[in-house]
Amino acid sequence: MSGLPAVVVRIPAPLRAYVGGAGEVEVRGATVGAALQDLTARFPRLRRHLYGEDGRLRSFVNIYLNEEDVRHLGGESAAIRPGDALTIVPSIAGGAEVATGEGVTAGPPGLTNEEVARYARHLVLPEVGLEGQRKLKAAKVLLVGAGGLGSPAALYLAAAGVGTLGLVDFDAVDTSNLHRQVLYGVSDVGRPKLEAASARIRDVNPNVEVVPHAVRLTSENALEVLEPYDVVVDGTDNFPTRYLVNDACVLLGKPNVYGSIFRFEGQVSVFGVEGGPCYRCLFREPPPPGLVPSCAEGGVLGVLPGIIGSLQALETLKLILGQGQTLAGRLLLFDALTMRWRELRLRRNPACPVCGDEPTIRELIDYEAFCGVKREREEAGSMEEFDVTPTWVKERLESGEPLRLIDVRERDEWELVNLGAYGAELIPLSEFADRMGELDATQEMVVYCRSGKRSGRVVKQLREAGFTRVWNLRGGILGWAEELEPGMPRY
Amino acid sequence: MGARLNGFTRPARAAFVWRVRASRRWIEARGDGIVLAAPVIRLGPGVLEAVRRHARREYPRECCGALVGRAAARAGGERLVVRALPLENAEREAPARGYLIPAAVVRRAERDAALEGLELVGFYHSHPGGGAEPSGVDREKAWPWYNYLIVAVGDGEPGDVRVWRLAEDRSRFDAVAIVVEDEERAPRIHGAKRGRSRR
């Protein structure tokens, strides 16, 4: 090759990426054609842009030898002399003819200038890119519950550019929410959650349309509320709503991104996806009421809902983008104390009453009855006959009447706040059975806990055991604080 | 002291290897090692209006021209268009259904732009009676790297505008996000913000 004349080839901007960014490349060849062959041999990725499938130069590729179009010099057979320069010059052509849209990545709504700047880190990811970002903008996601799980999920989904976020919640912000529900701040306490959440989400991303549903989700309204959305994120804290959301999602054919937390543990999965399992395939029936305590009773570590809710948001993005493998068919378990993740394989149950091959549930049912909540509430109602008010108790104690005040909460709850000043004694529920001997059936007694629920069960059992003078402090220590001592700490 | 490999502890080495592999996967994903430009094009003030005017004037024939500006001026391969340069449609046989900018014209436009320190970052053309999506012919004759702006013209009135770039394997066009730098709009946005915060 060394005997052949060297020639400089000037590379136009569109092709420079294929020659390492250079504007000029030196090649060898006796003719224009040979020089171009040498060029494409050295930079093979140039070939498909210069030559058509028939092996001939593409019609819009023009080669100039020095200042002359080689077409006027005999084409590719034109001879080259040392010191000559070849220039590749594009001509530009096209047409409206057969604008089929074939081979085009088209999609839903475009992005504004501000959105392009905002989502720049998304746009450089090939898995998201412009098309993916437009999918996110067109997507509608419903968050059931704007609490511990809903907070991080809503913030991240809004920040990521999900166009429409529906929120279902009818609660007001409580001080005890603030340790984990990062959507809210001190100034929001007492405000309806939806109002505070909408304002916060708009601050995060004003391009997001927030649709508030200030309702309790019921069998009557669930299908209507869920219908307009593409993905449902389950951040509920009770079994009736969880089964309701699951069944509604299966009936409507919508993916249900499930998350749940308790104390130090969390679970995440994706239900309601074509061919995948649903919540009922995993838990066919709810646990008996009272067996699984709520977060209010059992507690929850502050950061945990942030982790689980963020994972739900992540799975939601993947579902919208159609990228990666979702948790459909897998249950992810997280233990914050040991910092370990476990994964369980889930299969769709062909005998599942909702998503099975022959479903028996074809419309929404009464979920409170299904979960036994109504029965529990009725029982709670019957306990009221043994209730006494905080004022009644305080008056009796202050007038010096003999009355034992028994606290059945756990020791650390006692440490937080107690009625020791009124002579209250601590017999935690966990030790109650062993310490029954300390009680005298002839004595008048008032039992209390945090809210009156646990102590109500204790009173009922004591009455059945023959303690006829035992009473339940209505509303527990919270009721006491509300009625008598507003300055007392509450939890 | 844990076992050391090349000065790394085992976990540190594993973490390093993981990071290198992730980077390599990323580079491979960008396609043949070519830096994938973030698909964004900035249109300077008046560019879009000039293209629309030209499209309206030429209707029902296709209009065409060059987008003059700067490439790779910013990280991520964002392109900037300073102005639209209207060029004559040299397609003689069916100017309503095609356009042609001959090499000599491209070359001259390139040199003129270079005198100002600018370059041709793409081209525009209209689709009379069609959409703003590229046709099969557009793809067949497209160059990589260039931005192809297409304006749809229905009933003589320019409508939808989209910008496209040819995929590396020539199999398709990818959409490019358009950022319009509009002199008039910016102050209006500021005004709206001030108005809100006062309330």
Report what the structure shows.
The complex is a heterodimer of chains A (491) and B (199). Mean pLDDT of chain A is 88; it is low at 98-107. With 491 residues, chain A is an alpha/beta fold. Helix content of chain A is 32%, strand content 18%. Chain A has 19 helices and 19 strands. In chain A, the strands form three sheets. In chain A, strands 9-8-7-10-11-12-13-14 form an eight-stranded mixed β-sheet, with helices on both faces. Chain A has a five-stranded mixed β-sheet with strand order 2-1-5-3-4, with helices on one face. The longest helix of chain B has 20 residues, at 10-29. Chain B has helices at 10-29, 47-58, 103-115, 136-140, 185-198; strands spanning 4-5, 8-9, 40-43, 64-70, 79-87, 99-101, 119-128, 147-154, 157-166, 173-180. With 199 residues, chain B is an alpha/beta fold. Mean pLDDT of chain B is 78; it is low at 31-38 and 185-199. The termini of chain B are far apart. Chains A and B meet through strand 6, helix 3 and helix 5 of A and strand 6, helix 3, strand 7, helix 4 and strand 10 of B. Strand 6 (92-94) of chain A pairs antiparallel with strand 6 of chain B.
Map the helices and strands.
The complex is a heterodimer of chains A (491) and B (199).
Chain A: E1 6-10, E2 24-28, H1 32-42, H2 47-50, E3 61-65, E4 68-69, E5 85-90, E6 92-94, H3 113-118, H4 120-123, H5 129-138, E7 140-144, H6 150-160, E8 164-168, H7 193-204, E9 209-213, H8 222-226, E10 231-234, H9 239-252, E11 256-262, E12 265-271, H10 279-282, H11 295-298, H12 304-321, E13 330-335, E14 340-345, H13 367-370, H14 373-383, E15 387-388, H15 390-398, E16 404-407, H16 411-416, E17 425-426, H17 429-432, E18 445-448, H18 453-464, E19 470-473, H19 476-483
Parallel strand pairs in A: 1-5, 7-8, 7-10, 8-9, 10-11, 15-19, 16-17, 16-18, 18-19
Antiparallel strand pairs in A: 1-2, 3-4, 3-5, 11-12, 12-13, 13-14
Chain B: E1 4-5, E2 8-9, H1 10-29, E3 40-43, H2 47-58, E4 64-70, E5 79-87, E6 99-101, H3 103-115, E7 119-128, H4 136-140, E8 147-154, E9 157-166, E10 173-180, H5 185-198
Parallel strand pairs in B: 3-5, 3-10, 7-8
Antiparallel strand pairs in B: 1-2, 4-5, 4-7, 8-9, 9-10
